[in-house]
């Protein structure tokens, strides 16, 4: 298990109470670096109408911990699939629980769910989620990137939203999705509109914010949302409070397969 000073320094930029996080050399490639996620984090921090967050593919909790620091009073659900026959997945869930426990001082209302995101959608805990974060697997068992069509098919199978629609969905995807038809991604979530997009880490990945369409929201949901028309730009990350200065950013660890 790795305990990288670089990663610890990145997370401590969010909150100095983060003492440590544990992950394997393979899992380090699955973590979202806070330095790379400043744009996303600035938007999440400024959204005043989200009180319940779900990290659908939590892995060892890299994104979950960032949400804990950004929204210390929000309820947060970390979902990680496990299996009694897969020792690697069981160990990953164990590290996730340990990492969340190490950060309890930041947010004490974070829960870990040992199930798939598909199963979590049927739980009562999902019925009040208003921000859904999706960082789905990008590669197959051999480490080869899925093509755009396969990624969309997997996403549609994993996240069949039917009975409850969160106000926002944030989707993290690899760079080559942009070479496909992104409208196909929106077809997976027909009740949503593309709100904001940004590329990061030298265009290695993209993040897309989807916002529940006004015609789908209940009047109460829409009244609580930021008062902007879909054609107007969202928050300007340049004017948002910085989470960490990029000018003194330490060297990046080598990127591996996702």
Index terms:
16% strand; 258 residues; seven-stranded mixed sheet; alpha/beta; single chain; globular; disordered C terminus
Question: How would you summarize this macromolecular structure in one to three sentences?
Answer:
The protein has 258 residues and is of the alpha/beta class.
Any overview of this molecule?
It contains eight helices and seven strands. 27% of the residues lie in helices and 16% in strands. The longest helix is centred in the middle third of the chain and has 16 residues, at 87-102. It has helices at residues 5-12, 38-46, 62-70, 87-102, 117-120, 148-158, 183-188, 219-224; strands spanning 52-55, 75-79, 110-113, 131-134, 168-174, 192-200, 205-212. It is α/β, with parallel strands linked by helices. It has a seven-stranded mixed β-sheet with strand order 3-2-1-4-5-7-6, covered by helices on one side. Mean pLDDT is 78; it is low at 225-258.
How are the SSEs ordered, and which strands pair?
Blueprint: H1 5-12, H2 38-46, E1 52-55, H3 62-70, E2 75-79, H4 87-102, E3 110-113, H5 117-120, E4 131-134, H6 148-158, E5 168-174, H7 183-188, E6 192-200, E7 205-212, H8 219-224
Parallel strand pairs: 1-2, 1-4, 2-3, 4-5
Antiparallel strand pairs: 5-7, 6-7
